[in-house]
Amino acid sequence: MTEAEQRLQHIASIFDEVNRTYFGGVIPAPTVSINTRMTHTAGQVDCRTWAMDISPEYHDHYGWEEELVETVKHEAVHLYLAHMKRPAGHTSEFKAICVRIGASHYSKPMPRHRRHYRYLVQCPRCWVPRYRRGWRRDLACRECCKKYNGGRYSPQFALQLVKREIVQ
Asked: Which of 45, 98, 124, 159 is the most exposed place for a label (fewest CB within 10 A)?
């Protein structure tokens, strides 16, 4: 059995235990999967297809034991409300059930792996330095284009990259 299969089996067993302990076993078992594309949350459920996705990046960072139980509890509340034909979002009823079973409302912030930069650019005409979050070669100085070219893009006012800085 592969590590992924073991994790899926472990998640399913945690769900079964949470379902029996807190919901009397009334929630039908969802299809469980590990979703490597999840970059902003610990887990999610789709009540239409009755599926639960778990983020491996989140749990690799925060742990596959205690934090996984918290995630499964949270997602089980969504499934319980959907099964009971109640609104399954983060409503006041959802939060009350989370408090009752000791589940967290929100996951911890996801770790950032991508570096974020800011760019110092400068116009070759007016020499005004500006900071930008993104930079491409086809950007031009707005003020100079308005003043000297009727507001249209002109490559003679193309911004020049001065430096790129890492933003923490």
From this structure: 124
Global pTM value:
0.67
Model confidence over 42-69: pLDDT tens digits? 999 999 999 999 999 888 888 888 889 9
Burial label for 74, CB within 10 Å (0-12, 13-18, 19+), is buried
Which domains, from first to last, does the chain contain? Answer: 3-101 (3.30.2010.10), 116-167 (no CATH)
Please state, for a pLDDT cut of 90, what percent of the chain lies above it.
67
DSSP structure string for 25-63:
T-SPPPEEEE-TT--S-SEEEETTTTEEEE-HHHHHHH-
